[in-house]
Design brief:
By secondary structure, the protein is an alpha/beta fold. The protein is built from eleven helices and ten strands. The protein folds into two domains: 179 residues, D-Maltodextrin-Binding Protein, domain 2 (3-Layer(aba) Sandwich), CATH 3.40.190; 99 residues, D-Maltodextrin-Binding Protein, domain 2. Helix content is 45%, strand content 19%. α2 packs across α9 and α4 runs parallel beside α11.
């Protein structure tokens, strides 16, 4: 074998070894703790769900999962960190409507591409949003509420946990579907928004069951309708929006797990498998039930399809309502 041919073969072998190295390492994944980015503050619903799932997944992975809260910029800070992370499976994140369906329309420019810069690992679940009012609000049911809103355009305020939140955009979809005009009062989180609705400072809001189920069941607010396809078993007497005459207005928050683009298939398969197993864990099932959350076990492809469908559904609403966050 001449020297030129030997050099060529050596180079090809080295290139092949370099190409296969990440895949070979992926077969033994994980070999160290995994960092799970939560793009919200500690103690909120997304954080609690992530911590509950990470504990359930720990045994199957054989490594700890460390929760790292990176709130800010409507989840863009945490998402950008993950998008720019090494695709080795040691940095993953909780992603919700904001990252997957809203922000590409709400912001003129994002530091990442939601369709190209992530690997989809699996969906976590979804929980519907319900329209609630202060108990002393003059409208006793949805029909009366809608009549009041139409008779008082711009005079009826609504609360939300913040600009661009699922709660904010749920009301904007409601306004779009019903031809009403309510004024948005954004808060910094669900807790202060709920407190002011309970206190009567703001008359209404769309509220997720994860945050609001105790005050709904405790009659601290009156629930007029729920934004799910069917009635919720935890609020069986509450009609859906479709039942009260507002079709095509299914509003829910959903979550899943993402990693940076380019995750090796064995890593995605391992994480997806352990995530799906975790849904059978009693502690996870209890937490989901307490939050009124529907688990969404499935494949990465199914999670990606859900995300794309939600993006296509919300884009026209955000554009029609003229909502921008920059």
């Amino acid at each position: 074998m001449n020297a030129q041919r030997r050099t060529l073969l050596t180079g090809l072998a080295a290139a092949g070894a370099t190409t296969l190295a990440p895949w070979a390492r992926a077969q033994g994944y994980p070999e160290q703790p995994v960092k799970w980015i939560v793009p919200y503050p500690a103690g909120g619903g997304t954080d609690v769900i992530a911590r509950t799932l990470s504990e359930a997944m720990r045994t199957g992975l054989g490594q700890a999962i460390v929760i790292d809260n990176r709130p800010g910029a409507s989840t863009n800070i945490g998402a950008d960190l993950v998008a720019k992370s090494k695709p080795d499976g040691y940095t993953i994140m909780s992603a919700d409507n904001a990252v997957l369906a809203f922000n590409e329309y709400l912001f003129g420019k994002l530091p990442f591409n939601p369709e190209k810069d992530f690997s989809y690992i699996g969906a976590i679940g979804r929980f519907p949003l319900a329209l609630v009012v202060h108990p002393d609000f003059p409208a006793q049911d949805f029909k009366a509420f809608l009549a009041y809103a139409k008779a008082n355009p711009g005079k009826l305020n609504y609360a939300s946990p913040g600009n661009g939140s699922p709660h904010h955009l749920a009301m904007e979809m409601f306004k779009n579907r019903t031809g009403t005009f309510l004024t948005h009062i954004p808060y910094r989180g669900a807790a202060p928004a709920m407190a002011d609705v309970m206190g009567g400072q703001v008359p209404c809001m769309f509220l997720d069951l994860a945050s609001g189920l105790p005050i709904m069941q405790g009659n601290k607010v009156r629930v007029l309708a729920i934004g799910s396809a069917q009635r919720n078993k935890l609020l069986p007497n509450v009609p859906t929006l479709a039942e009260v005459g507002v079709p095509n207005t299914e509003v829910f928050a959903f979550q899943g797990v993402l990693g940076p683009a380019g995750l090796p298939a064995p890593v995605v398969a391992k994480l997806n498998g352990e995530l799906n197993k975790a849904f059978g864990n009693p502690a996870v099932q209890k937490r989901f039930n307490d939050f009124g959350m529907e688990a969404l076990p499935g494949t990465p492809e199914q999670f990606a399809a859900l995300s794309r469908a939600e993006s296509k559904r919300w884009g026209p609403i955000i554009k029609a309502q003229g909502i921008k966050l920059d």
